[in-house]
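If your schedule permits, I should be very grateful for your opinion on a structural question. I would ask you to consider whether the tokens describe a fold that such a sequence might reasonably adopt. Thank you for your consideration; the sequence and its tokens are set out here.
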Amino acid sequence: MSFYNDINKQLEQKLRIQKNFDIINRKIQVGNKEGTIYFIDGFVKDDVMEKLQEFFLSLKPETFPKTAQDFMEQALPYVEAEASSNMSDILKNILSGVVVLTVDGLEQCLLVDCRTYPARGVEEPQKDKVLRGSRDGFVETLVSNTALIRRRIRKETLSMEMYTVGEVSQTDVVLCYMQDRVEPHLLELIQQRLKDIKVEALTMNQETLAECLHHKHWWNPFPKFKFTERPDTACACLLEGLIIVLVDNSPSAMVVPTNLFDVIEEADDYYFPPITGTYLRFSRCIMTLTGLFLTPVFLLLMQNENWIPPWLAFIALEEQANIPIIWQLMILEIAIDGLKLAAINTPSMLSTPLSVIAALVIGEFAVNSGWFNAEVMLYMAFVAISNFTQESYELGYAVKFMRVQLLVWIALFNVWGAVLGLGIIVLELVCNKTIDGKSYLYPLIPFNGKQLKKRLIRNSYTKFLK
């Protein structure tokens, strides 16, 4: 049996052509020989295929190429093409959307990459918005995301390595880095971990990949990775010597390694003058710290009212608490998350009625009915605002978990509970490590004054050019 008949028989069996309506095999005429094309309906550019078939029909018998390599070079007028006889490679390409052409008389298949994926526009991300700056964002198509990065960094040292992760999903993962700026040890570590991943599929895209890359200390809620949907932020990280990991079907980039100061930074810090960017950075840090300690300190003072100085007497409860303060705080912690989930699952046309219901029922009516004290509602509203100032969902929930455990310890053991809760927070931060094993609090621990100043104060760009 010839290679042509044998490979066609294998492909029809393995792809189950009769069962899958969207996997197409079509007989075509290539010069004076018979050929077959295999492709997935919806992934192929029709106009390109029409032009290719016109060219195939025009081939003359006397000039017909003898080998697949000659055919690819002389008779295949398309920029992305290769020859292969490896069955697993051929199957992977077909299922990825590549057109496979088999021609009678040739000992290899021709892989023509004329695929196109369904994709949305590169509009500004809903989460990573900025007051000033570019309005494009990553999408679910991998090639579009790499193009957005290449558009901003036109340097030959920008490298993008392709990996395949998942025995079933065969998901494309791209490792982006600047060859002259990345740490060699970090690069080798990430490359080896990507090669060693043993998983059936990246079911949840980047989250599954993140857990495979860094599966230790799952009990520590502080984020080990920074995620961004902004190409400008990703490029800034690349220029700092960090690594960007892109996953097909995911509209965000994963930044490694990541420490606490990396997560706190936002794009708006750099789209404004240095003094404004520094102010925004300090405001965000103060709001985060206030959101962490406001309600625990309030609870501690309510349990020890004799500590309240006369000039702070107004913070005491004006009315008797029908429900213990700790339970009011816990109920409101869950209620705020409930409102977030409701907002996510509520159609945009119903968002206004949801806001009215939340304001009336959980606001005024909840206080008037005696379930909650006005002071508790006020402080929890401030905590909710502080959570929304944080760009990273992961860091926001890490702060929430630390605040809740601090409230529980204070309710149980009063002052000693506050000491224990603070010790746990410090322990969580100190014991947390980046993916390459470095301190999560660098440049604070170990201390580096120059780098710490750079992290806290936004310098002028002219200083980086000197």
Summary: The chain has a mean pLDDT of 87. Residues 86 and 108 are 9 Å apart (CA to CA). The first strand starts at residue 23 and ends at 30. The two ends are 70 Å apart (CA to CA).
